[in-house]
């Protein structure tokens, strides 16, 4: 294992101390726990608050999306581990302005359990909550069982839509409606080339041999559905887009936004080679790409690989997509 | 070699096609060559233009810094190879508004030769040019021979200062003065954990064994000055900051900006662990960190490693530091 760390058990708290220092203009802690982080200006008056949370090791997910036009707060877990319900409750109390709180996170057992518990505790304290769960990873479950799928990089779009809607002054009910609508219209497919190593484990979580790739792998190394010879960037891109297009029933004339996300070790240069092919495929099918995001949006430590997310747009989602946001890692003017 | 590419010889042009598509709101080509890229709104009236250039494989360097508050244009080379003088000349013609053009790039033989030639050709066409060369890599040459050092991530600060000064309406002479002043006050130290592989070569450019690190390595794999056992993040950070502080003659009461840069494969989480230690060291020495940047600013394909750059501030540099910029990869509001 080659990592810039000190004691493995301190990775998350030390990382957060550095992060809170570097982004003190945007972030603050909700209480005396560095793992409970909220917007500097929380609670934001007269706005539905959006909270996410999950394990560490996926930066910019989850806490990197705190800021204007994005999340109000995040409960941070240890590497690949859920935050506790009491953390989530503490963040909830700090961000609620009286207009309710949306819990928006990926579909993993521990997260679902803890957000559910936190929601019940919050209701007992008079804070209205609702939950939308990201389930964009096409490869994780077959069609017909979409609600059982894992949440991966497509969460970015759910944050974006929920937050933009909330900033328009909408009610919790309206924010939930738009976020669920976005969730039904976003899909992600990923491919991995090499594994990552958890600091406390000290060795790779899985293995992909030289010359091989794995399609459909999850961001914690959950097995994919195809392991085989590494193909060209164009062929891999075609496969991923094909799966997404079919699952999302994309048709000629549709409008989409595309997120090409690096999983950690993959150079930006390669993501743009993939971007070029996505452009060519959709141009050929007369599907309009309204906006592209390229970079690291949801990583898995130093895993080499990438994912493509596609959000199918309608007029409302398109309007919300273009609203600005200002977070520590990504900004949109 | 595991990369998302097609034919190795097409990596740069395909990458640029993707990049120009994704960032068509900010970038355009200077001519019919996708390797010659300028600001969408070039030439910007009544402003000294800033041009950079160099080999590919370092994104966001170089072309990722084109945009308002940063560069006007970039001539892009093949992987780790200089752009040609005719490319640079073409970019020069497209960005010049009559107020002159600053060539601002890292100290590498091919780049120096080609920018010099382009400058001579530009002068013959009546365009005034000047050059400032980044030489921030402390490890590459000893003290006393600072002007022979390589340019690495510290270039970010030179771009920032030159461009901010130019946007204030300053003359070419004034922009050069500030940029040279910034150059004398910026230092970088890097450490690598694993190599990168050039697509056309197909195997790693060097080797660092398991459990080892190399301090002082350049961003093309130029050898460092210390190869030894991988130390803790805190110890490595202390070493890098010690070297920089001594070379820069940092004293109690000084003000600095710090850039903690990932070389490609290193997770953001680890960069923030390093950030925490930098904060503690400077706090202890009563050196004020005015602003921190953390992320990928100058990479070396999928090399694992990081660098720390420190810019010593005075009132003018501090004012320029805080001016906003808007580029494809990084934005400052």
Automatic annotation (TrEMBL), chains A, B:
One of its GO terms (molecular function) is glycerone kinase activity. PROSITE patterns: DHAK. InterPro entries: DhaK_dom, Dihydroxyacetone_Kinase. Keywords: ATP-binding, Kinase, Nucleotide-binding, Transferase. The keyword Transferase applies. GO terms for cellular component: cytosol. SUPFAM superfamilies: DAK1/DegV-like. Residues 7-330 form the DhaK domain. GO terms for biological process: glycerol catabolic process. Pfam families: Dak1. This is DhaK domain-containing protein. It comes from Alkalihalophilus marmarensis DSM 21297.
